[in-house]
Amino acid sequence: MTKKNVAFIGTGVMGASIVHHLLQAGYAVHIFTRTASKAQTLIEEGAVWHKTAADATKNAEVVFTMVGDPIDVEEVYFGDAGIFKTAKEGTLVIDLTTSQPTLAKKIATFAAERHIDALDAPVSGGDVGAKNGTLSIMVGGKKEAFERALSIFEVFGQNVVYQGLAGAGQHTKMCNQIAIATNMIGVAESLVYGKRAGLDLDTVLQSISAGAAGSWSLSNLAPRMIKGDLEPGFYIKHFLKDMRIALEEAEQMDLQLPGLQLAKKMYDELAEQGLQEKGTQAIIKYYNRRKTSEKKMKKSNSTPSLMGFAVLFIVIPLLYVGSFIIYTQFNEQWVHVETAMLSMFCYYIACSVWWFVYSWRKRKKLMNN
């Protein structure tokens, strides 16, 4: 493929690095991102900013999209100011977003009716892979379109593999995200364990990264966890989107994925704490939160419990005895001693049962949280 006019829609953390590589390779790149100021560095490098995706696409021979959610993908392709409004016959459109396989098929079908080639080509490798131009690219669509795009893929990708017809690239990315989801749990738990054991975590990584436990996440994200660097290479909010898509696709295939479900539950909790804009390595915060919860549980099971015990079993009985004495003084008669003792005994039994049930339910609730 000779150097061509390229449109690139969406210049976020990874998209910006890809555009940089395209510019360095000599492509004329037309970009669209909602806020021009966020693309200022790329504009200074030579990219041309446009107000809409349709404007950026108008003279492009190849159009890349890399946006957030499936709804964003649908908008930039099918919207009133979308790609299909101005894309000409023979244009090649390539979606790098991790999105729904069904949407990839919809785009491919719509494009084919207009003699436009379409590929779904989600990537893996995070911000590091994008910066280094070493992304893994999994491609779905017509084989001829893949061959046409291969040389431009190689500008920013190192492992470019054709997976099959439309949607196959997205399905492969789901396999990738499923593998990462539970791997992130393992990486975080290995560090938590090592720290509790009193080990030097950097030294631990030197050993385990080179062994059977080695993975991209262990080599690239574990050091960030150790440093407390939670800045995004890949946002939690985007990872949650990917896991949601994978679970939806699995459900349609009548497939149970308990490991993925657990990972999504953990990241959902982190998002609820306001960490959705942080990187996926922020899963380490989940274990810090659990440690804090355990401390709170121990505290709540000590001081409040002792106070409650004192009130129920000492203060109230003393008040009872005091009122008993006052009553007999003013009425100049004694209440039957056996009656008083029996009522006190019943009181203690009732309080003991209630206290046991209350403490058990409270502890169970804290454990669940």
How would you sum up this structure, described in words?
The protein has 369 residues and is α/β, with parallel strands linked by helices. It is 61% helix and 11% strand. The protein has helices at 13-24, 40-45, 53-57, 70-78, 101-113, 126-132, 143-156, 168-196, 201-208, 216-220, 222-227, 236-252, 258-272, 284-300, 303-331, 337-368; strands at 5-9, 28-32, 48-49, 62-65, 92-95, 117-120, 123-124, 135-141, 157-164. α8 (168-196) packs across α12. The longest helix has 32 residues, at 337-368.
* Strand elements, count: 9
Helical amount: 55-70%
Judged by helices, strands and strand pairing, the structural class is alpha/beta
Shape descriptor reads elongated
Radius of gyration based on Cα positions = 31 Å
The pLDDT mean sits at: 87
Q: Could you name the ranges where pLDDT drops below 50 across 5 or more consecutive residues?
A: none
Number of helices: 16
Distance between the termini: 56 Å
Strand content: 5-15%
The major β-sheet equals:
9 strands, mixed
In N-to-C order, the SSE pattern is EHEHEHEHEHEEHEHEHHHHHHHHH
Topology:
Elements: E1 5-9, H1 13-24, E2 28-32, H2 40-45, E3 48-49, H3 53-57, E4 62-65, H4 70-78, E5 92-95, H5 101-113, E6 117-120, E7 123-124, H6 126-132, E8 135-141, H7 143-156, E9 157-164, H8 168-196, H9 201-208, H10 216-220, H11 222-227, H12 236-252, H13 258-272, H14 284-300, H15 303-331, H16 337-368
Parallel strand pairs: 1-2, 1-4, 2-3, 4-5, 5-6, 8-9
Antiparallel strand pairs: 6-8, 7-8
Helix pairs in contact: 1-6, 8-12, 8-13, 12-13, 15-16
